[in-house]
Amino acid sequence: MLTRDQATTMLELQASMNAKVDPDWVAARYPYLRAVAIEGAEAIEHHGWKWWKKQDKDLPQLQMELIDIWHFILSEVLLRNENEPEEPLKALLDALQAAEHSDRIEVDGQQFELAELDLLRKLELLIALSVLRRIDMALFAAIMADCDMDWTELYRQYVGKNVLNMFRQDRGYKQGTYLKEWHGREDNEHLVEVIHRLDADAPDFKDRIYSALSEAYPD
What does the pLDDT read at residue 170? Predict the structure, then answer.
């Protein structure tokens, strides 16, 4: 499960990113779970579902979709617990704790055993619950496991993507002066190397990522 420091970092990063997109994002109350439903459908496409043609599961793209889905889940958690500063963190940690002891989901009176479902069925359930404005951390964790991810890897990739986005903005991404490729490699490749080199349990993980990117970037 995520540590308290990791959960805190993710919520802070998500709130900052939402504010960068729209300073009034809390008042706007965007339909973040609708976005989860759409991303879930995109994940199904990356998995492959068409019985009339050959399709191969694209695991890296599936993992990227899960990172995007997590952005929207965090945003919904922040919105639902906006009244007190500590409420989003408590809600997230409580939900993750409860997920460790949950192995089934009930939808419209029907019980679904997570262990009996394949990845496609789990993604379908994720979409259904999102449409019903429900978040189920046990289901999300089961989907992660099917995509060869644990919470530490989710944390690494989520924080890395957020920090890279901030780094790009600070280096002139919007103005068109940012260099997407350094020393013969794209910035995403540098990021992957950095996040797996650093200790994800360190409280200043996000700051270390930013520093490492700064050192590598050709100013």
Answer: 87
pLDDT in tens, 197-218: 999 888 899 999 999 999 999 8
d(CA 187, CA 104): 40
Secondary structure element (H or E) that encloses residue 189, with its range = helix 187-197
Cα–Cα dist 183/3, whole Å: 35
Structure tokens, 102: 């949950």
Strand partners, 110: 107
Residue in the block written with tokens 């990739």: 157
User: What is the DSSP code (8-state) at residue 105?
Assistant: E
User: Per the structure block, which two tokens stand in for 118?
Assistant: 């394949």
Helix, strand, coil tally for the chain in percent (to 5): 65, 5, 30
Structure tokens at 17: 């990113």
Distances (CA, A) of 207 to 13, 153, 181, 201: 11, 17, 22, 12
CB 43 within 8 A of CB 65: yes
The one-character DSSP state at 48 is -
- DSSP-based three-state secondary structure for 101: coil
d(CA 172, CA 180) in angstroms, rounded, equals 11
Tell me the pLDDT tens digit for each residue of 162-193. 898 889 888 888 889 999 898 898 888 899 89
For tokens 């993507």, the residue is 161
Structure tokens at 169: 């903005």
